[in-house]
Amino acid sequence: MPIATINPATGETVRTFTPATPEEIDTAIGRAHARFAEYRRTTFAERAKWARATAELLEAEADQTAAMMTLEMGKTLVAARAEVLKCAKGFRYYADNAEQLLADEPADAAAVGAAKAYTRYQPLGVVLAVMPWNFPLWQAVRFAAPALMAGNVGILKHASNVPQTALYLADVIARGGFPDGCFQTLLVPSSAVEPILRDPRVAAATLTGSEPAGRSVAAVAGDEIKPTVLELGGSDPFIVMPSADLDAAVSTAVTARVQNNGQSCIAAKRFIIHTDVYDAFVEKFVEQMAALRVGDPTDPDTDVGPLATEQGRADVEKLVDEAVAAGAVIRCGGKRLDRPGWFYPPTVITNIRRDMPIFCEEVFGPVASVYRAADIDEAIEIANSTTFGLGSNAWTREESEQQRFIDDIEAGQVFINGMVVSYPELPFGGIKRSGYGRELAGHGIREFCNTKTVWIGSPETGDCGSGEKAE
Ligand code: NAP
């Protein structure tokens, strides 16, 4: 994959970039490693000052940054601007909370025969971040803000189709005041990830992306015995029960499916509707999906822009075409738009059987699969029947049903009467093949910390911790 900005709305290559050489990679790792030795001793107050300054710059530059993101991966300008502002919020959240989230945790000293015992969180060192293009700023910031506030330093290998956004992030973090070498972008192909991760100066890695990429990074990290966080794909269920507010459920379902032009890991992708409200839901849902305006992502009236890459559109098309050939029914959309750029319309499909690939694979585009469930047991069974376990959405006013969904859906997050959204304040991540580890909130900032147990004996008693006096 070339490292290049290719406008998905036109297919035009705007700018190409030369990948870093092995020598440049070595220099960058060396710079990061040397910086860590000093940076880990900076105070939370210093880091917070730099994080707040970065947030201010992000806000001040939001319009230009949003335009760059739209040019590189096709999300609407409105969505891109909101993403930049969310990144500012992410930096502020960790500026305000990191010290308390990483404060020493006292333990019951008497129970372990100590004068004092506690847990201390310390940074690990150089962390490699391999990131996807779909939220090109936010995905990287939700790694960078907690990692930097914890005292780690980062090296970003971003997706090859968002090089300008990747360079911008390192630049804005440096202008925010973080010392040189704290956060660097390396423009490299995915083949460079393995040697970087194997470098003894790199302590850990995080990857957000597809299952094959996650498997490959986890295998190398396993071989090197280095910790990883993996945020991989999802095929989130969106369940609607008879007691739900149907109009709210339908309009949220539309947003949950087409956000980011349908290319979000936590987009609702499978709509599982109780049979009592199935027909009413499908009618309203199809009407609203078909009414969305597809077009130029820079136009404020556009709801859905192009898919980010030509290959991405081909993958979506293949899943839809195979399903239709096997008997699934298109209720709206289903055919690529006849215009330059990688446009695919909002699409609703019903009558899907379990032997169709679309049943179990992630559809990374604005395509909604709708299923009928006879009751709550069947709804949960369908929801849990993929290998993914990222997010989940369930709509019901019945408290007992809400508890069933909370207890029995296999996912890293369950949102009741709403849609899955990432917030700095809430842990984010998946189970099963959606990955492991958590980003955001306290869980996220501790992922790349050494949880160090501290036990201090009493010099007077000479207690050695065994519960007996030392000889
Ligand atoms: P991708 O192809 O896996 O790429 C993600 C990143 O991994 C890119 O930087 C890519 O570099 C790199 N990469 C690809 N293959 C690699 C390999 N074998 N070894 C090391 N690095 C490798 O994924 P994508 O198409 O950009 O993103 C879409 C996927 O990400 C979807 O499955 C989506 O659900 C998932 N995602 C998950 C989350 C989450 O939080 N769980 C969030 C967003 C997206 P190149 O670009 O150079 O190939």
Automatic annotation (TrEMBL):
InterPro entries on file: Ald_DH/histidinol_DH, Ald_DH_C, Ald_DH_CS_CYS, Ald_DH_N, Aldehyde_DH_dom, ALDH_GabD1-like, GABD/Sad-like
GO terms (BP aspect): tricarboxylic acid cycle
Domain of life of the native organism: Bacteria
Any Pfam family the entry gives: Aldedh
Keywords associated with the record: NADP, Oxidoreductase, Tricarboxylic acid cycle
GO molecular function: aldehyde dehydrogenase [NAD(P)+] activity; succinate-semialdehyde dehydrogenase (NAD+) activity
Family listed: Belongs to the aldehyde dehydrogenase family.
Protein name (database record): Succinate-semialdehyde dehydrogenase [NADP(+)] 1
Organism of origin: Mycobacterium heckeshornense
